Amino acid sequence: MTFHQMIQSDKPVLVDFSAEWCGPCKMMAPILKEVKKEIGDSATIIKVDVDKNPAAASEYQVQGVPTLILFKNGKQLWRQSGVVQKSGLVSIIQKFTVNS
Predict the structure, then answer these.
(1) Which residue is catalytic, options 9, 11, 22, 97?
(2) pLDDT value of position 1
(3) Is 80 inside a domain boundary?
(4) Nearest one of 4, 26, 7, 5 to 70, comparing CA atoms
(5) Is residue 83, in this structure, part of any structural domain at all?
(6) For the segment 40-49, what is each residue's pLDDT rounded down to a tens digit?
(7) How many domains does the chain contain in total?
(8) Does residue 30 have an active-site annotation?
(9) Helix (H, G, I), strand (E, B) or coil at 18
């Protein structure tokens, strides 16, 4: 499945644009694991390495990593750069799953 097919989902898709060399990106990994545990199947979380997928990163003007973007039906609903805490992410995802 391609990146574009994944973000067309009617279920929210949280994309973590990150890089291997990025310290804050490493901090996001355990946070995202916890978020996944809490939200279960109500949303999908995918990680995109900006060095391996420069086209996706430039298409969404990802300037710095980590950048998190929440998509639903191919539309960008929310985005933030930097480390985002678990509680904030869970509430953002839930906000968009409840309204569906």
Answers:
(1) 22
(2) 81
(3) no
(4) 7
(5) no
(6) 999 999 999 9
(7) 1
(8) no
(9) strand
Establish whether 90 is a catalytic residue: no
Find tokens 């980590």 and name the residue.
66
**CATH code of 52's domain:** 3.40.30.10
Which residue is it, tokens 């309204």? Answer: 99
Q: Specify the pTM.
A: 0.94
Nearest to 13 by CA among 37, 47, 38: 47
Q: Does the residue 53 lie in any domain?
A: yes
Alpha helices (H) along the chain: 3-7, 23-39, 54-59, 86-98
Q: How far apart are CA 10 and CA 13, in angstroms?
A: 9
Q: Which of 14, 25, 92, 93 is catalytic?
A: 25
Domain assignment of residue 91, yes or no: no
